[in-house]
Amino acid sequence: MKEVRMGVIGLGNMGSNHIGYINEIPGCRIAAVADHDPEMLARGDKLENCEQFAEGLDLINSGTVDAILIATPHYDHPPLTLAAFKKGIHVLCEKPVAVTAAAADKVNKAFARMKKKPIWGAMFNQRTHANWQFIKRVMDSGEIGELRRVCWIITNWFRSQAYYDSGGWRATWAGEGGGVLINQCPHNLDLITWFCGTPNKVISNVGLGKYHDIEVEDDVTAMLEYPNGATGVFITTTGDSPGTNRLEIVGTKGKIVTLGGGKVELTRSHQDIVEFCYGTEESFGNVACDTMTVQPGGKGGGHRKVTEQFIKAILANDASLLVAHASEGIKGLELGNAMLMSGVLNEPIKIPTPRAKFEKLLKDLAAKSKGRKPKKVRKAKVDMSASF
User: Fold this and answer.
1) Residue 115 CB: number of other CB atoms within 10 A?
2) Left (φ > 0), alpha (ψ -120 to 50) or beta: where does 383 sit?
3) So what's the pLDDT on residue 51?
4) How far apart are CA 331 and CA 126, in angstroms?
5) Is the separation of the CB atoms in 237 and 180 below 8 Å?
6) Are the beta carbons of 8 and 43 closer than 8 angstroms?
7) Which domains does the chain have, with CATH numbers?
8) pLDDT exceeds 70 at position 190
9) Torsion angle (degrees, nearest 10) of CA 124, 125, 126, 129
């Protein structure tokens, strides 16, 4: 294959962002687009030699594409992915890969059963950023020892009521399957599991419509417990302004702290803290250490880089070229499911989550929905670059 014919399904905020650069990627062109909304679909008018479809399934079955990028509302991601698999079409899926871990697991198992596997990537563009890649290298190297504690305060997601009123599916259990955890935080949930692994238990406090006139969660404080006894805290909201984005990871031989502006503070201890604790004769002494500030630099290409690597992986038939394989999307998703479930039910949740119980919880929440969406969708000013 010398050229990948790409189809983009969903031309909302993210989909329209993607169609702005895809034709500039070597070896790729947009061959088709799809959207339910005629106004959104019209965004494809500026694309040459591009078919238009009202339904994503019609695009998949049309024979006009070799690969698709899915940028639809979250619940549509698994069925569109499975439909593409049946046609042997490569898939790049926007985050999250699904709404529930059960749905993601179903797709993972379907992919595992395929003899001829398509290239299947996830749009985890944050993984391309140099500071996150630096932290990943440090964690994988064991440079700061065994994990003891992680704390991520990620509250710079402020959203106005106009944002929530700008789409009929936004901030509803039936349309989106959640709030800040499923919409804003999939990247952070992916990264924290990428760095530290998956915790085995979660206890959380969740506020439903705490700061906005919505039915889903817009405020979360979660406590994490890891298999080795390490602990963590994850705090997020769309109600704080100004917000904070600060990650601290503490190990037995040092720590990592993000300082903002792409800077990372790395502290290396001269001795493992466990050895020092039981070996020193000092009552109040601290292990000697060295601290350095690193600025790896750059955002690493973001969405475009993920798509470029997806195209390279297709042309080379090499999934290792992907920024993130979509089968990994279940990890952060399951953590988010556990946080929401713990907060709503007010009980600790073990991971893997009780998936049938979580599915029932979402259905019950949707059934009890008060329908607090506006009768008329508001036109909100949108600058997607401010969200990256």
Assistant:
1) 4
2) beta
3) 98
4) 16
5) yes
6) no
7) 4-126+301-325 (3.40.50.720), 129-299+332-382 (3.30.360.10)
8) yes
9) 140
Q: What does each C-alpha distance from 300 to 43, 55, 69, 137, 191 come to in angstroms?
A: 27, 33, 20, 15, 15
DSSP character at residue 252 = T
What is the average pLDDT across 91-102? 97
Structure pTM? 0.94
Q: How many CB atoms lie within 10 A of CB 153?
A: 18
Q: Is 345 helix (H, G, I), strand (E, B) or coil?
A: helix
- Give the span between the Cα atoms of 242 and 77, in whole angstroms: 32
Q: What is the pLDDT of residues 104-122, one digit of tens each?
A: 999 999 999 999 999 999 9
C-alpha to C-alpha distance for 298 and 1, rounded to whole angstroms = 32
Answer yes or no: is pLDDT of 376 > 60.
no
Contact 5, 68 (CB under 8 A): no
Q: How confident is the model at residue 381 (pLDDT cuts 50, 70, 90)?
A: low
